[in-house]
Amino acid sequence: MPQLKSLFFLATFSAAFIDSISVWQAWAANDRVQFPEGYENGVHYATVNRGGVSKEIFTSPQAIAAAKAGQPLPDGTVIMMEDHRGGALHRYVVMEKRAGWGDAYPESVRAGDWEFREFAPTQSPNLGENGQRCMSCHQSQAGQDFVFTLDRMRNAD
């Protein structure tokens, strides 16, 4: 009987361990997006205001050039959004595009090769957000390289 209990414990532990690895992998991929130091030196191409929320959006000159040329945004593109509420910085949201990153997610969740990550005003990662909520919303923009503000990029100065 002790062997049966040990076998049962081992099977239960193994199943729990495998489940935790699957969850870890889904969250671990989000760790690839790092806070983009110096983003403010890029192109500020949009301000979006909704009620008491103001979003300042930045990207690279290379992304702007690709958008203006009607090309897909290049591998390595980073789009940074500063989210201000009530006049104060509330959070940062970063989306980054890297070849193959979409492969980490099921087709039903994926937004191309983009990953998303939220950061606190201190620039530390918000570990309570895994980016899949952002992905699910951005899926509606598949024809715009999954970017809501692509037209604003095309019209940026």
Automatic annotation (TrEMBL):
Lineage: superkingdom: Bacteria
Domain Cytochrome P460, first and last residues per copy: 36-149
Protein name: Cytochrome P460 domain-containing protein
CDD domains: cyt_P460_fam (cd20716)
Record-linked Gene3D superfamilies: Cytochrome P460
Parts forming coiled coils: none
Signal sequence bounds: 1-28
Keyword terms, alphabetized: Signal
